[in-house]
């Protein structure tokens, strides 16, 4: 029998209705199809419809917020707590200036040799702790040693040359004395010849017949001969004196050669000591770039030493420096060890923004200008000695907080 739901009302409470539903469900294999779900919906609507003249119970309207005092109190407490928290945060935050543009820094020492040669031994490795005068690298200096021996021999030869030059000066001085002695006799002969010539001429003027013309000629010849011998002896004296000056100059040149030879020998001896490259400071070895057998040249970087004493370079905005002063306390956290708080103080300020020292400074006087807040490097000294116990080194990120109020 087919039931027309539009013509005959269905009593959902009737047993016949539930029996028909159960038989239909068993025929469909227990599967709930879309029609079944629609029929369930119809059932729910049917239950909501009045049956037999009865009215359904409607849901009461929701209560207004003013009718729920507990909720009002909770909302008020939350708002007051948020306002109080914001005020407390503002009062605390205004006392500090912070930036995330900060890095650990240090005066890294880059080690380079002063002599050229093959590396014979490398005594350190990366991250090793070293102290002053610790031998880092040994360079083979056999060639320098041989050159040093040759320079020492040259210095000895130069000293021997100085001795010879000094002896030559003494011999020249004796030659001068002998030459000056040789001048005495020709000078005396010249004086006698000139006197004889003067007497003959006086006598000739008084009594011409008393002096023969031949005697006058002979006297004139004697004067000329004596003058020639005197001049020759005087020339030998001048030559000896010039030789003495030359010998003394040679002594000076030889002494200068000795000085140069000694300087070269000392320089080579210093190079021999530079065959051992040592550390100038306490620190840890980093960036090692040398191995035994490598050929190195003067100035070539072999490795670097990171000092134990580090500091922080923080690039604050220029607007953050209004209240910042040297000596103000700083707390900082390093990304490498974020759970540890380190302490320090403001050490100094760079006299100029970072862009002033750039390779290509900005040309603000040309084109369109847009004002950009500049950053100024601030050096922060680290006061916590415990930082040496952590793997902290230059270049690591830091977040400092400077207490300015």
- Based on helices, strands and strand pairing, what is the structural class? alpha+beta
Helix content range of the residues, please? Answer: 40-55%
* pLDDT averaged over residues: 78
**Tally of structural domains:** 4
Radius of gyration: 58 Å
CATH class of the largest domain: Mainly Alpha
Strand content: 15-25%
Which outline best applies? elongated
What's the β-strand tally? 15
The main pleated sheet reads as: 6 strands, antiparallel, barrel
Topology record:
Layout: H1 15-27, H2 34-48, H3 69-93, E1 96-98, E2 102-105, E3 109-111, E4 117-122, E5 129-130, E6 135-139, H4 142-206, H5 213-273, E7 276-278, E8 283-286, E9 295-296, E10 303-307, E11 311-317, E12 329-334, E13 337-349, E14 375-382, E15 397-403
Helix pairs in contact: 4-5
Structure notes:
The protein is an alpha+beta fold. The chain has four domains: 51 residues; 32 residues; 109 residues, Efflux pump adaptor protein, beta barrel domain (Elongation Factor Tu (Ef-tu), domain 3, Beta Barrel), CATH 2.40.30.170; 131 residues, Helix Hairpins, CATH 1.10.287. The chain is 44% helix and 19% strand. The strands form three sheets. A six-stranded antiparallel beta barrel has the order 2-11-14-13-12-15. Strands 3-10-8-5 form a four-stranded antiparallel beta sheet, with no helix packed on it. The protein has a four-stranded antiparallel beta sheet with strand order 7-6-4-9, with no helix packed on it. α4 runs antiparallel to α5. The longest helix is centred in the middle third of the chain and has 65 residues.
